[in-house]
Design goal:
The chain is of the alpha+beta class. It has 3 helices and 4 strands. Helix 1 packs antiparallel against helix 3 (67-81).
Length: 99
């Protein structure tokens, strides 16, 4: 399995819950429909507005094949929330311990 970690800064910490609702309703369905999608999570530090999103992909091929599509989705999501993308890094997953 492979993962893409995106780090964001800015946005509106007090409106984070509304942003998550928009993410679930408008952004996530597009990502979930991509071949090789295996899951995702969002991490936030509300006091600073910094956040990270992690998407998981079946294999390196799926990670690579989704790169351009997800880049457009990420940029749109950041613009909607008023945040900026600080970094995007791709990893091979060493292990997971999620239900």
């Amino acid at each position: 399995m492979y993962a893409r970690l995106s780090t964001y800064e800015g946005g509106y910490p007090e409106d984070y819950d509304a942003g998550l609702d928009t993410l679930r309703a408008e952004v996530l369905p597009g990502i979930q429909a991509l071949p090789g999608y295996r899951g995702s999570m969002s991490l936030v530090e509300r006091s600073t507005g910094r956040s990270m999103s992690i998407t998981f992909w079946a294999d390196e091929e799926a990670l690579s094949a989704t790169r351009q599509t997800v880049e457009k989705i990420r940029e749109r999501a950041a613009a909607t929330s008023g945040s900026r993308i600080l970094d995007v890094t791709e990893y091979e997953v060493g292990y997971t311990d999620l239900p």
